């Protein structure tokens, strides 16, 4: 057990964990990248704090990586340390890297090795929202276009703009 965190802080921390059969999801604040956020001394990332509570201090040059690829997960069994290079290699092996060759050329589309499917997503106000999983890259791109156009209008680029976007209604004075 780590001596740097009090029992009161540990209780305050673990109360924000929702245990499922697999991941322990952080239910407190999250940062703009979707990682759990918890302010404790010099540390703010919840998964790093969880790792330190169970396993002890993290070497300064190391990062805490997720086996499950879930940024909200704080299950210590899903966490391991590695260098930045290890983190990039892990990202590549899990199909989240453009280096792998399975990156999409379409906006709002990515390949997921875990599900072996293409996923469509939008990013609005620096937050990613997954729209669905698809068998083909084209299906995912078309789904992205449909949601991007119907929900967000001209704010997001389209993959297949078939005609000019309609003019917004004019105010009647």
Largest sheet entry? 3 strands, antiparallel
SSE order: HEEEEHEEHEEEH
User: How far from one another are the termini?
Assistant: 69 Å
Mean pLDDT: 83
Secondary-structure-derived class: alpha+beta
Helix fraction bin:
25-40%
Roughly how many Å is the radius of gyration?
20 Å
Count, helices: 4
Name the strands of the widest sheet in spatial order.
Answer: 7-8-9
Overall 3D form: elongated
**Uncertain runs:** none
User: Total domains, how many?
Assistant: 2
| Total DSSP E strands | 9
How big a fraction of the residues is strand?
15-25%
Structure description:
The chain is about 25% helix and about 25% strand. The protein is built from four helices and nine strands, in the order H-E-E-E-E-H-E-E-H-E-E-E-H. A three-stranded antiparallel beta sheet has the order 7-8-9, covered by helices on one side. A hairpin with a 2-residue loop joins strand 3 (about 35-40) and strand 4 (about 45). The protein is an alpha+beta fold and about 170 residues long.
Structural key phrases:
4 helices; single chain; 173 residues; GCC-box Binding Domain; 2 domains; three-stranded antiparallel sheet; 25% helix; alpha+beta; elongated
Provide the fold topology:
Blueprint: H1 7-14, E1 17-19, E2 24-26, E3 37-40, E4 43-45, H2 46-55, E5 63-66, E6 79-82, H3 84-93, E7 109-112, E8 117-124, E9 127-134, H4 137-152
Antiparallel strand pairs: 1-2, 3-4, 5-6, 7-8, 8-9
